[in-house]
Known about the structure:
Blueprint: H1 4-21, H2 23-31, H3 40-58, H4 67-92, H5 98-109, H6 125-153, H7 176-200, H8 205-216, H9 233-246, H10 250-258, H11 269-289, H12 294-309, H13 324-333, H14 349-367, E1 376-377, E2 380-381, H15 384-410, H16 415-426, H17 434-437, H18 448-462, H19 466-469
Antiparallel strand pairs: 1-2
Helix pairs in contact: 1-3, 1-4, 2-6, 3-4, 4-5, 4-6, 5-6, 5-18, 6-7, 6-8, 7-8, 7-9, 7-10, 8-9, 9-12, 11-12, 15-16, 15-18, 16-18
Amino acid sequence: MPAFRPIVFIGGILVLVLTATMAIPALVELALGADHAHEYLPGIAVPAFLGITALLASRGGPLKLGLREAYLLTSGVWFVLPLVAALPFMWTLPNLSLTDAYFEAVSGLTTTGSTVIVGLHDLPPGVLLWRSLLQWVGGIGIVVMAVAVLPLLRVGGMQLMKRESSDTSDKILARPRELATWLLGIYVALTVMAAAGFELAGMTGFDAVNHAMTTVSTGGYSTEDSSFGGFSPAAQWVAIVFMLAGAAPFLFYVQMLRGTSGFVPWSQIPPMLGVVAIAGGLLAWTALQSGHDLPDAIRHGLFTVTSIITTTGFASHDWQTWGPFAAALALILTFCGGCTGSTSGAVKIFRWQVLFRRFRITVQELIRPHRVVAQVYQGRAVGPEVVQSVTGFMLLLGGTTALTTLALAATGVDLVTAFSGAATAITNVGPALGPIAGPAGTFATLPDAAKWILSVAMLLGRLELLTVLVMLDPDFWRK
């Protein structure tokens, strides 16, 4: 059986870290003289007690994590932490059920951005800040997981991103603690710059800080029901810049700042920008046909595509009003994703590059059957196991989307909302299609069963599917 002691110990530490974060919105409420500061106390006390109990019960002995323990810890933490994060919602918003609170917390920590809360402008400032903090904390957790955990677990071809342990010159930074410090420093710096940009673009300080956290984390939570439609065009351009910044590989920033060598999948950045430019132009054309003037059409087109590609989920306009072509293009872009090693979700540019290169090689080998073409990625050999992992991930993504669609339809959800909701949950994008959960709607009216299904789908998508599903194999539990 796996060793559960280190899993419980590390899990207890993470619960305490998230619990300590709850003090921030409580202090903000207190400073603003609001009436909700005391309502955070139970939400802090209960998980703090559980976290301390977990530490005391599992103390002593070495903290060694094998492959099975790493799978269990990664999956378990992402399923348990939303329960802790849901407590402030339940205690400060009395009309919010456990189902809605857990959905909101899962959407926050996975940086999906789907919401069941209506009337954001009237919410207490602490609740708005807590939503943004969840996405900000979840964003840095996603970066660390993508850089340090998923390559070791060999999920969906991520083993190609593993840094060679036999050659420290091929590492961006040799020590994990130093690397984590740099990643966090860059994350904080981008957030500060985004907040300054939003404030210069006309946002209040509170709105600027909240949107900076949810933009850099490519999360998509806003302080307004209309998302970025309620802010200035300048603020929307700032958001475009920092959504793209959050969707770039964070190791690329470390490499540039330190001037060090090492394998960083920077070649994902040009294709991502190319897709944004081309698809943004197409959406701008549809917006122009719908009555927008040229500057507004370009801005809304680029903003919408950037928001979907980076899996942020902000909206500057209800793009469904531009016609079926815009909706179809948005649905296709939902599966694209940003760069590996970023805060974005979905398939990722890296996997599409591997598949397209494999397709080209297959065509070349059909034309010249005796020709052997090696597959490489940025000068690094791509073995058959990587291609198989990427192919398996894509098949699993399609199958999981189909099963989730069926499960949602079984709860009475219409087909458009069921399919687009399944797709947007698994890819962690946020808004779906249709009048219910589209960019101008919320998931509030869905049945509770549908919300639980979507919550699980969001977690599966953030954990790259295989991280969880591998534990369903009986061989996983055998010695």
